[in-house]
Amino acid sequence: MARSAYLAEKAGGDISLVIVDEAACQIEQDKYVTMIRTAPVQLQAAMIAAIDADRQRKGPVGTGQAYDAYKSFCARCRMQP
Asked: How far apart are CA 40 and CA 43, in angstroms?
């Protein structure tokens, strides 16, 4: 509710269903950002590599391709896979 009030005040209007929905989305997004930021480095590296592999392939990425992307990312960052 506090986020909705903040967004309504920022927009210079009243709290509406649209603002409540936007606040709920922001709160959900904040949870994921916090989860990723506090995750172990290896998990962060695996997620970055999987996203990078997906962007390069423009389609489904298999487990082998994801692991290869992870190993490549770790090599570029000089960290152990």
From this structure: 5
pLDDT at 57 over 80: no
Listed in order, strand segments (DSSP E) in 1-81 are none
Q: Which amino acid is at 1?
A: M
Q: What share of the chain is helix, strand, coil (3-state, %, to 5)?
A: 80, 0, 20
Mean pLDDT of the chain: 88
Q: State pTM to two decimals.
A: 0.64
CA dihedral for 16, 21, 22, 24, sign (positive or negative): positive
Q: How far, in Å, CA of 54 to CA of 58, rounded? A: 6
* CA 37/CA 11 separation, integer angstroms: 29
The residue among 35, 73, 64, 78 whose CA lies nearest residue 27 is 35
